[in-house]
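#help-structures

NK: newbie question. if I give both the sequence and a SMILES, will the prediction place the ligand too? trying with NDP
OV: yes, paste both and it writes out the complex. here, I ran yours:
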Amino acid sequence: MSYSVAVAGASGYAGGELLRLLAAHPEFQVTTVTAHSNAGEKLAAVHPHLLTYAELVLKPTEAASLVGHDVVFLALPHGASGAITAELPDDVLVVDCGADHRLTDPEAWATWYGGEYYGAWTYGMPELPRADADTPATATAAAQRAELAQTKRIAVPGCNVSAVTFGLAPGIAAGVIQADDLVSVLSVGTSGAGKSLKTNLLASEIAGSASAYGVGGVHRHVPEIIQNLTAAGGTGVSISFTPVLVPMSRGILATSTAKLAPGVTAAEVRAAWQAAYADEPFAHLLPEGVFPRSGDTTGANTVLVGLAVDERAGRVVVVSALDNLVKGTAGAAIQSANLALGLDETLGLPVNGVAP
Ligand SMILES: NC(=O)C1=CN([C@@H]2O[C@H](COP(=O)(O)OP(=O)(O)OC[C@H]3O[C@@H](n4cnc5c(N)ncnc54)[C@H](OP(=O)(O)O)[C@@H]3O)[C@@H](O)[C@H]2O)C=CC1
Ligand SMILES: CC(=O)N[C@@H](CCC(=O)OP(=O)(O)O)C(=O)O
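OV: that's the protein plus ligand as structure tokens.
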């Protein structure tokens, strides 16, 4: 069976990456692409690298363009997807790459985003371990996958959120690190900010320079990270989160540290991540002493993790890398859509990065 697919926001970075991956997917046929200011243009005019769908004409982003498809991927600015989705039939699988449906707490939405709250959807991170807070060591990703298999509405995680969650969740779920004193500093590529012109992203200002932003616990990804790590079994989750814009177009390299739980050995720490990712197709723990580079994941739906125990500091140091446009958005969206349609979770998704 082949599914007809619409991609809204196809002229943007996330939309373009969805199209690149969907072109290699054996069960999906993209028949509609939409845009905002670029509506009316051929796709070839905005994404010359995408030959498969080059002749499709970008329609306006409105419900009328999207109805009649089996699957709709939304890659729109925050706040733009809620109203459109309300007009789509319940039996259409809708996968939103934006933040509109990620947060389960309406107050958190009001605090960090604002505007109308359209409610949380099934969270599109199949690997997320979920635990009863009293028994974190029993956390597995089975519950998340089971929910995804039943849903018609998927909220794709934020890209920075994914990098941090993949880095820390296994240790929290297994109880080998403390959740109340987490620190994550991320090197992030510029494409995470989207295609529209922003003054802090002028080439003359980012080339050859690194700059922190969202400093002081004010980045909107903080509540989403806390939501995930709490679901993984963390109690009193507290994280200091600082992204640093670096001169690369794609990729995120997150360095996260956490206090070792009392009495835990280095071998037990490693075993926690090893067990969590042993059977995962897209999450991988690297051998001892090996740490990922962001570029190792370019183009792949893969998150790579390296870890070490800093005995002097009493902390675990986890380095996690992913491509913000693939495992950080478009790849995660397709992986979750595969599950929701009962397809092989890995269908159409590259596992190997492009390096160097
Ligand atoms: N870039 C990334 O790494 C990641 C992005 N995301 C999320 O994916 C979504 C898209 O991001 P990204 O592709 O980077 O952004 P871009 O700015 O590159 O693209 C935005 C898309 O939305 C369209 N658009 C702009 N304004 C409106 C509007 N008012 N109403 C409807 N459509 C509009 C644009 O159309 P046009 O260009 O024709 O005006 C374009 O197709 C965002 O919610 C983002 O947070 C999530 C994780 C990672
Ligand atoms: C460089 C840069 O600005 N990156 C963005 C990535 C956000 C993202 O893509 O996630 P959302 O879907 O939650 O917007 C940021 O840190 O805000």
